[in-house]
Fold this sequence. Notes:
Layout: H1 3-25, H2 30-50, H3 73-88, H4 92-97, H5 108-119, H6 130-146, H7 157-167, E1 175-177, H8 184-193, H9 200-208, E2 211-215, H10 218-230, E3 241-243, E4 255-260, E5 269-273, E6 279-283, H11 298-309, E7 310-321, H12 323-326, H13 330-341, E8 342-349, E9 362-369, E10 380-385, H14 405-411, E11 425-429, H15 430-435, H16 449-452, H17 460-487
Parallel strand pairs: 1-2, 1-4, 2-3, 4-7, 8-10
Antiparallel strand pairs: 5-6, 7-9, 8-9, 10-11
Helix pairs in contact: 1-6, 2-5, 2-6, 2-10, 3-5, 7-8
Amino acid sequence: MTLATTQNAASIVGRVWNYASVLRDDGLSYADYLEQLTFLLFLKMNDELAALPGQTRRIPAGDDWDSFKKLDGDALQQQYQRVLERLGKTTGMLGTIFSKAENRIKTPALLKKLVSLIDGQEWLALDADVTGDVYESLLERNAEDVKGGAGQYFTPRALIRAIVQCVRPTVGEKVCDPASGTGGFLLAAHEFMKHSRLDRDQARALSLETFYGTDIVGSVVRLATMNLWLHNIGGDAEPPITARDALQSHGGKYYEVVLANPPFGKKSSFSGVSDDGKVTRETLSYERNDFWATTGNKQLLFLMHIASILAIDGRAAVVLPDNVLFEGGAGETIRRRLLQQYDLHTILRLPTGIFYAGGVKANVLFFDRKPAQEGWWTQGTWVYDLRTNQNFTMKTNPLRLSHLEEFIRCYATADRSQRTESERFKRFSLEELLARDKVNLDITWLQDNALEDAASLPAPNVLALEITEQLRFALEQFAAIGDELSEV
């Protein structure tokens, strides 16, 4: 992507965001605005896609962008609502995108302004996933506004691209993301795979039989499905991404490549209202015979699920918070099984400041599934430390692909036996790993300069966020212990 394109995309994101404030004054929430933006952007981008050579019009005339873009007033309101209703009654991917859709912009002049804003830009001419950029920008600002952490679930694109370059999915392999979010991993894998020389059958398979995902949030599934459609993934068949809780069952399918960043937050639970009107909170229980341990830790559950759906000789890369590396009890059991039955060959220690929720400490675990055997498949794990003495922020110093180029070289996808140690890249033998207390895989060896020089300490707000995150995890640990004791 050129600098000019990046600046253009940023300018459009700014314009779209500024208009969100206008609609908010009209009574629309950020979530409602994001939903309407999703519908309108999809219809406009589909219109551009249909105009490209070799493309066919997949939305019928009368229900497309042209059917209302020149209208205004009540005529615009009524036609836009008719389009949403008719498309919502279709099957396949279109039905998923427009399921239960309705026009929530009740002021005709505001709807006309948004339509004109979108119509004035050639969206597909941008060499970027602009829809995703807009979506994540809104999430970030909404998270700041409500003091929430929704944005932490969305993986920086630079990290996604680096992971895909390391795992290197190939045409003919099935790729799955069981916590697909906006579809970032699947889109990056598609971009990587489509540059291969493909015959007609391979091109068809890449579109229809390669990418799969699930997400528990219906509105996010809608956006991901829209993105896949616009990238010619999925055709007119059933959507590759389904709205369900991936942890509830294995699903019966196996995948050669699994890429994921499961949602952060340790407890799997939901809120409800009892008969007497009191709000209650219950922990979700996942009784699965293929799980190695019983736990309420959502990340450990996702790690076991991903391990279970990986095909023999398949490759996985999953973003997980630090507690997965050191938590005792079920955590230790799961780490031992992973080392024994899989080849956990690489851990990338991620820096703080790259997720929307500040203070998050996370890692990428790379592992391969192996056939059953006696003994341990993992003989050594390489750890790359991109965290110590690294400072990133979402706005002033965001993580870029250039920051990960050294790790990609060290990963040595073509032949991992050619790896060599460096200042930030070290190998730890199986014996060393098993000798650590509770098989703790949270490994550090670099000297943190901040500990030597008080002047170089992170800003107070960064320290406060990190402390808050650590306290939150600790409190959840105590809560989990309390839940277990109450059941005894």
